[in-house]
Amino acid sequence: MEGPEGLGRKQACLAMLLHFLDTYQGLLQEEEGAGHIIKDLYLLIMKDESLYQGLREDTLRLHQLVETVELKIPEENQPPSKQVKPLFRHFRRIDSCLQTRVAFRGSDEIFCRVYMPDHSYVTIRSRLSASVQDILDSVTEKLQYSEEPAGREDSLILVAVLEFVDYVFHGERGRRETANLELLLQRCSEVTHWVATEVLLCEAPGKRAQLLKKFIKIAALCKQNQDLLSFYAVVMGLDNAAVSRLRLTWEKLPGKFKNLFRKFENLTDPCRNHKSYREVISKMKPPVIPFVPLILKDLTFLHEGSKTLVDGLVNIEKLHSVAEKVRTIRKYRSLDMEASPHHLQTKAYVRQFQVIDNQNLLFELSYKLEANSQ
């Protein structure tokens, strides 16, 4: 039944069943049939957008219940040996994609430390969007340097870390300071799982092949617009073993798109320290959105490969290398563009992705679509 009345009945049934599952979760885990009920319910919700949007909290609870159920794949249908690329270890779990996202904005206030030549420092509150000169002017006023000889403010030094460095150097301790970066990584993982989810929830072989074609086109547009982060996310979603094993579906794809996707796979190939990717991005002019996990990988290598202090002295060579990587990140940046009404509609859509991030569940969907594909 469609309409508000039908949606209300669906929501009531789901709420009742979730309460039952929560109450008897321990006992249900011992029954194989219970796991199938939970998984089938979860998949039905993922296909029913109105229900998904209407019960976000309950959907998140169901998502967590799916994680607690032991998902088994028959021995004769073991997944291929293809593994997720190691760079995904930088990504956090995607459960929070159903929760409210909070990012820093330019108007948000932060605390900055400004150091003096005598190694003392003053802490000042400032907008995130404030320039270095704005901050130094505020410090000058706070310390009443205006009465001092001209040029005294030149001795003030602002020490600020970008989020990338804080993420690598401080790990868990820097989580609040790296909120934007964490959201960016989470978003990349979410897009990857969204691609796989959309393909595997499409039951008609012809439409599924058309969906592959459309995602390859999207990847091409991302590359053309120098958004390599989204490009990687889409390609890795199509490269998911649960999707790539759908031989009958891929065979329906025109040769032109098969060849194009092979080129995309070569570009994302991590061999020789991502040589293909590094060559391509080195020829691009800003603005560019790089594949962020690779930057974190490089910074992690710099940080863990050498000590920050050697015999009690600062390792200047290491810090110069880190600074060079930060300058590369800054080079990619550009001014924001005003969004058109069409862009705002697209933005609203992509913020509501429905994704399945459980790899075993993706494989179960894959085997239901094509049981005998190799």
UniProtKB/TrEMBL annotation:
GO terms for biological process: Ras protein signal transduction. InterPro entries: Ras-like_GEF, Ras_GEF_dom_sf, RASGEF_cat_dom, RASGEF_cat_dom_sf, Ubiquitin-like_domsf. SUPFAM superfamilies: Ras GEF, Ubiquitin-like. The keyword Ligase does not apply. GO terms for molecular function: guanyl-nucleotide exchange factor activity. Pfam families: RasGEF (PF00617). GO terms for cellular component: plasma membrane. Residues 146-372 form the Ras-GEF domain. Keywords: Guanine-nucleotide releasing factor. It comes from the Eukaryota. This is Rap guanine nucleotide exchange factor like 1. It comes from Nomascus leucogenys (Northern white-cheeked gibbon). The gene is RAPGEFL1.
